[in-house]
Design brief:
six-stranded mixed beta sheet, alpha/beta, Udp-n-acetylmuramoylalanyl-d-glutamate--2,6- Diaminopimelate Ligase, Chain: A, domain 1, five-stranded mixed beta sheet, 13 strands, about 30% helix
Length: about 350
């Protein structure tokens, strides 16, 4: 994919001037495209920004693995039905495009997805993709002049009785409404879609995901939770641990025999220890996920289960942001700009 920069991008609608800490942060961060696996930086409204304008141009970069550099299809999954767009780009149109790719029918019953804040009729030029809706990621959207945020994790996951600005969640909602920024959430519908979150994680690790861990047939397309696929070349578990850490730019926890040979890999972006029994029933040599619990892993290994890697919740899901944002731009033939937040919302300190 070729990214247009320079005057073509600068001709877009002028962005509001910022003041205070956000403006200082904007000024201090140099521009660099947000590329999966690169150092985390985020583009700002007053600098040259990547503008995805051509589906044909996009396909070239999508065919290059960001970890191995090998060329091939970005996802092994069947293509989604094409999204048909006409008329002005509105929040409602973007919602329709997202739900064509991440159908609501794939949402888990306990989940909370969809349009959380904003009017479907509001016009949109700029969409900011984030894993978590926090005060920091909302500040990014404000600094960019974005009219919409697409988040992976729900902001309102559990019932609330107040959104007063005396709480963090209340301040976030107040800021979104005050600034006119819409919020859409694609959570388990994006996890279970194909391509989805686990496909992006597999690609970041350098292999093409072939089958779901837990298949869910939907017409002619078999999708579901997690993915399993093969590395191009086998490696020891010790080497694979280092590979995962480099590919996701994060510290990891790992359990298993360092000398074990790894070829077939199972992955699940986000919390995935609920799938350990299903993984154990496959021929996967290793399982990469997040939020693994102590006793669950002990039991899994005691029963002869494969080695496991806990890559952290944010790191295992953030790889999805870039392909999701690129796909949305392609849906609208470059009529919108999409950016990806590099803000690491993993709350754990690493020593």
């Amino acid at each position: 994919m070729a990214m247009a920069t320079g005057s073509a991008c600068c001709e877009r609608t002028a962005r509001p001037e910022q003041s205070g800490p956000v403006a200082q942060l904007v000024e201090q961060r140099p521009y660099k495209p947000c590329v999966a696996g690169s150092s985390p930086v985020w583009p700002t409204h007053h600098l040259e920004l990547p503008l995805w304008t051509s589906v044909a141009d996009m396909s070239e970069e999508l065919a290059t693995c960001p970890v191995t550099g090998l060329r091939g299809p970005r996802h092994s999954a069947e293509p989604v039905a094409p999204f048909s767009f006409s008329g002005p780009v509105t929040v409602g149109a973007i919602v329709a495009a997202l739900e064509a790719r991440y159908p609501l029918s794939l949402t888990e019953p306990w989940d909370s997805v969809g349009l959380t804040v904003g009017s479907p009729d509001a016009h949109v030029q700029w969409v900011h993709f984030v894993v978590d809706v926090t005060e920091e990621t909302v500040a990014e959207a404000v600094a960019l002049g974005a009219e919409m945020i697409v988040a992976h994790h729900p902001l309102l996951f559990r019932p609330v009785s107040s959104v007063a600005a005396s709480t963090s969640r209340g301040r976030i909602i107040t800021e979104l409404i005050t600034r006119g920024i819409a919020l859409y959430v694609a959570h388990t519908n994006a996890d279970n879609a194909r391509p989805g979150v686990s496909d992006a994680l597999a690609e970041q690790l350098g292999f093409a995901a072939a089958i779901p861990i837990v298949p869910v047939p939907t017409g002619q397309l078999v999708t579901g939770t997690g993915r399993i696929g093969d590395l191009a070349e086998p490696m020891t578990f010790a080497d694979f641990i280092a590979h995962v850490s480099r590919a996701l730019n994060t510290h990891v926890r790992a359990a298993g025999d360092p000398a074990a040979l790894i070829r077939r890999v199972a992955v699940c972006g986000g919390a995935g220890d609920s799938l350990l029994q299903q993984v154990a029933a496959t021929d996967a040599d290793v399982y990469v996920t997040a939020d693994l619990r102590h006793h669950v892993v002990l039991d899994h290994l005691a029963e002869g289960g494969c080695p496991v890697i806990d890559a952290g919740h944010w790191a295992s899901e953030s790889a999805w942001l870039k392909p999701a944002s690129q796909a949305l731009v392609a849906d609208f033939a470059g009529e919108i700009t999409a950016t990806v937040s590099p803000h690491v919302t993993d709350p754990w300190l690493r020593s």
